[in-house]
Design a protein that fits this description.
Elements (H helix, E strand, L loop, with lengths): L2 H28 L1 H4 L3 H11 L3 H18 L1 H10 L1 H20 L6 H31 L13 H4 L2 H25 L3 H31 L4 H22 L3 H23 L2 E3 L9 E2 H4 L3 H28 L6 H7 L8
Antiparallel strand pairs: 1-2
Helix pairs in contact: 1-4, 1-7, 1-9, 1-12, 3-15, 4-5, 4-14, 6-7, 7-9, 7-12, 9-10, 9-12, 10-11, 11-12
Length: about 350
């Protein structure tokens, strides 16, 4: 395997890590209006991801930096052509991060509702637009001979891409709700499990439609078909496990579903990194989009040293904050947190 291909799959792995980890963060944020019956419930929900959400978000920074260094042509085309969509994602992530830090700074219910709304929107927008972006990459976009995107924002909002966005939105929502049931105790745990069962049914239907459509887009690539079938099986397994109250298995299988779905999309793309829908001669491939062999070699040694340390640190963080929480946990830690009328 040459270094360009190696780094293609490393970038895939980084995006897998981002979507699996920040995916349930998005889901928890989107679940606030469904599971947050009062202020204490909402604090429980936010505290399930409180210690890890910012660490999860760093995966997209590492993925973007790796994309910039390993595939500068791909990075330039993607970030210039999808500028408005990626800007909306960035603004949503900023709003969400600010809300986590500021919602508890004042006791007024209006203040908290304002930041809760920002958390919900800041979670839903990236969950939708990431799916739109990756669906467009797989489908192909119009590029000129210099690999510049020649379409508009509205061209990106085509039916296939919107279905991809709806798929990631529902996958992340269900993933997050399952995480809530895994991390909580009491009534909120049971309500999260029931909600995951209901949202899981819709997710299975929408995801199946997107996977089938992608099979046609990918010209029935054997690698894609195998990976998509495995992702569909894992998704159904996650729903069955949740139905039986096995939150740990359900969460694990949801993570496997998202990971396999992302890998399947990149497998459908390979060896292109951004196909041109108007003229295949203008497509970006691993070969014409990658950096020099020397740059990739230096990056490979850097990744070999630091990536295991990052993964080990994140694993340690999850282990430290592995205990379930509930309403009693919040009340005991902050007796003064009675919701303000």
């Amino acid at each position: 395997m040459d270094l360009g291909t190696l780094w293609f799959w490393i970038v895939v792995g980084l995006f897998v890590g981002y979507f699996v980890l920040d995916g349930f963060d998005f889901g928890v944020g989107m679940s606030l209006p469904f599971l947050g019956k009062d202020e204490v419930d909402r604090r429980v929900l936010i505290n399930t991801i409180g210690p890890v959400w910012d660490l999860n978000e760093t995966w997209v920074i590492v993925a973007g930096a790796s994309l910039f260094a390993a595939f500068p042509e791909w990075y330039a085309t993607l970030f210039s052509g999808f500028y408005l969509a990626l800007l909306l994602i960035l603004l949503a992530l900023i709003a969400r991060g600010v809300s986590f830090e500021y919602r508890h700074q004042r006791p007024e219910s209006r203040w908290k509702r304002w930041f809760d709304g920002m958390i919900i929107v800041g979670s839903a927008v990236p969950a939708l637009l990431w799916g739109v972006a990756f669906a467009n990459i797989v489908q192909g976009v119009p590029l000129d001979a210099d690999h510049n995107y020649t379409g508009t924002l509205f061209d990106l909002l085509n039916p296939y891409a919107l279905l991809g966005g709806l798929t990631t939105l529902l996958l992340f929502f269900t993933h997050g709700v399952v995480f809530v049931s895994l991390k909580t105790i009491g009534d909120i745990r049971e309500r999260a499990r029931v909600l995951a069962v209901r949202s899981g049914v819709v997710t299975i239907v929408i995801a199946a439609a997107f996977l089938v459509w992608t099979a046609f887009v990918a010209a029935f690539s054997p690698a894609y078909l195998v990976l998509a079938a495995c992702a569909a099986t894992a998704l159904i397994g996650a729903w069955v496990a949740n139905l039986r109250g096995a939150e740990g298995w359900s969460f694990t299988l949801m993570a496997v579903t998202i990971a396999l779905a992302v890998i399947a999309l990149f497998a459908a793309l390979f060896p292109d990194v951004m196909p041109a829908s108007n003229d295949s001669a203008n497509s970006l491939t691993i070969e014409n989009a990658s950096s020099s062999p020397y740059t990739l070699a230096v990056m490979s040694w850097t990744a070999l040293i630091f990536l295991p340390l990052i993964v080990a640190y994140q694993g340690w963080t999850y282990w430290i904050f592995r205990k379930r929480i509930g309403r009693a946990t919040i009340d005991a830690a902050h007796p003064e947190s009675t919701p303000v009328a």
